[in-house]
Amino acid sequence: MNVFPPVGHRRNSTADFAIPAAPSSPTPPLNAAIHLYGVLFGLVSALIMRGHQQPDDWSALWIAGLITKQGNTSELYRIDPQDFARWTGPVWEETVRHAEASAFPHPFVHIPFLAEVMSWLTHLMSFTTSVFLLTAISGWAIIVLLASAWNLWTQHPIPWIILALATIIMWVSEPFHSSLYLGQTSPLIFAGVAYALAAVRHKPIIAGIVLGLVSAIKLTPVLLIALALGFKSSRRMGVVALLSGMGMVIASLITPGLHTLQDWVTTLRLIGDSVQVTPVNGSLTSLLSSPLASGSQAIVPVIHHPPLLAIWLPRLLAAVLFALVLWAAYRQPHYRWPLLSVGLFSIATTCSSILWSHYLLVAVLPLCGILTFPEPESSNSSGQFSFLRAAKLIALALIPLLLPPLADTTSEMYFPWGNLIPMVGLITLLSLLFSALKLPPSPPTSR
Fold first, then answer.
1. What is the pLDDT confidence band of residue 378, given thresholds at 50, 70 and 90?
2. For residues 84 and 45, is the Cβ–Cβ distance under 8 A?
3. 3-state class of 303 per DSSP?
4. How far is CA 37 from the centre of its chain?
5. Of the residues 53, 301, 385, 389, which has the maximum number of CB atoms within 10 A of its CB?
6. Where does the sequence pass through the membrane (predicted)?
7. Got the DSSP string for 238-298?
8. Which pLDDT value is given to residue 19?
9. Domain locations along the chain
10. Burial status of residue 252 (CB atoms within 10 A of its CB: 0-12, 13-18, 19 or more)
11. Among residues of the chain, what percentage have pLDDT more than 70?
12. How many of the other CB atoms lie within 10 Å of CB of 62?
């Protein structure tokens, strides 16, 4: 069964977020103009942020590269068992003391081969230069994320006025700002996921390579590889993604080696079996476990025995949300790919025990699905029109929860549930829209 929206499914309308008449064939998510705009935005972002960052997350990768260059790969995964923000051991202490990095590097938790890649990078440039390049690339990646998310749902290029407005909102949002401030790779990860989902029809090989690489780094996108393998239309991308992800694992087996790879797997298990409690972790698990961290002197206290409610309630929430997504996909067979891929990835991110502020970049995917939903064509669809307009307004009303001051942990107006509520709301709205409303039965004639 074809799991992609039919070409030209959108009605040409002057209403809010209406889509222009469809081209004769679906258009790729990116083009030269969008890339150029992304590069310019990235350079401007890097220039503005220069000297105003504390790239502790990027420093973790940089220090890991230096440790790998020294041949001390057995020391890569040294994390304080009581404080997720602190590393331990004399190798880390000595390397941090003499390295050009931020003042408080975070521990390293990624696949070992990434440390090997970082060791090459430390040969090529200074830490300061690498931060500037990361910031510029992150700015470009945000444009890729926005353009790809729009194209995934519409098969159209994103209108420039929408892209410009979205860029402004993204610039002031806490997820993007925290990514730039900390030197996070999240913009690249979520842009890679969005591009892979949108480009599966046009460039399945490239899409598969991208999805495989980001899956090896962040792991959650691995679910999308399994999903892609289940559909004939996306199976080619799924196979390529599986092979490219396995390539990263095999590379980690060769360099730095089996023991380091085992250390990484052990680290992932320890992280999964505990809860990291901090205001920037807005997961339901962290929120429900926060009373156990009261009085702790740790920067990010680690709770090794969270309450049962903190374990099972997120699982129940995930099950309910996934049931809603499955019903929507059943009701709208032409939209099964975007619904299941966006729904599965968004739910896995939202209901995980870790929901850092910068993970909220994923909200772009369901938000675009809601805002681009076509308006009813029948003049007797006033009830459907009202429901659709209300859903879009509610979706827009959730955006301030991702902006300062509500999303700023240093603000007196900070709202602790501001990470969780927008995602649960967007996933629910997306599912209800595609479950309850009828889409145009056939593509309109292109004008």
1. low
2. no
3. strand
4. 21
5. 301
6. 32-49, 131-150, 156-173, 180-199, 205-231, 238-258, 309-330, 342-373, 385-403, 415-437
7. HHHHHHHHHHHHHHHHHTT-HHHHHHHHHHHHHHHTSEE--TTB--HHHHHHGGGGTT--S
8. 31
9. 32-436
10. buried
11. 91
12. 27
Least confidently predicted of 75-84, 231-240, 438-447: 438-447
26: region left, alpha or beta (phi > 0 left; psi from -120 to 50 alpha): beta
* Residue reference for tokens 């469809």: 22
Average pLDDT over residues 276-297: 94
- Could you count the other beta carbons within 10 Å of the beta carbon of residue 352? 20
Cβ neighbours for 397, distance < 8 A, ≥ 6 positions apart: none
- 219, 150, 234, 153: which is closest to 189 by C-alpha? 219
Amino acid 304 reads H
Beta carbons of 80 and 88 less than 8 angstroms apart: yes
pLDDT grade for 442, boundaries at 50, 70 and 90: very low
Residue 104 gets which letter from DSSP?
A: S
pLDDT of amino acid 379: 53
DSSP character string of 149-175: HHHHHHSSPPPHHHHHHHHHHHHHSHH
Q: What is the pTM for the complete model shown?
A: 0.91
**How confident is residue 377, by pLDDT bands cut at 50, 70 and 90?**
low
Q: CA 340, CA 337: separation in Å to the nearest integer?
A: 5
| pLDDT of the residue at 84 | 95
Distance from the first to the final alpha carbon of the chain: 29
Give whole-number Cα distances, 368 to 12, 329, 346, in Å: 17, 17, 13
Q: Which of 413, 306, 427 is nearest to 360 (CA)?
A: 427
Say if residue 18 is exposed, middle or buried (CB neighbours under 10 Å; 0-12, 13-18, 19+): middle
Number of H helices and E strands in the chain, helices first, is 18, 2
Rounded CA-CA distance 275/287 in Å is 10
Question: Tokens standing for 357?
Answer: 């502020």
pLDDT over 60 (residue 335) = yes
Instruction: State the average pLDDT over residues 248-271.
Output: 93
Do the beta carbons of residue 215 and residue 189 sit within 8 Å? no
Q: Which residues of 189-198 are buried (b: 16+ CB within 10 A; e: fewer)?
A: bbbbbbbbbb
Measure the CA–CA gap between 116 and 108, rounded to whole angstroms. Answer: 12
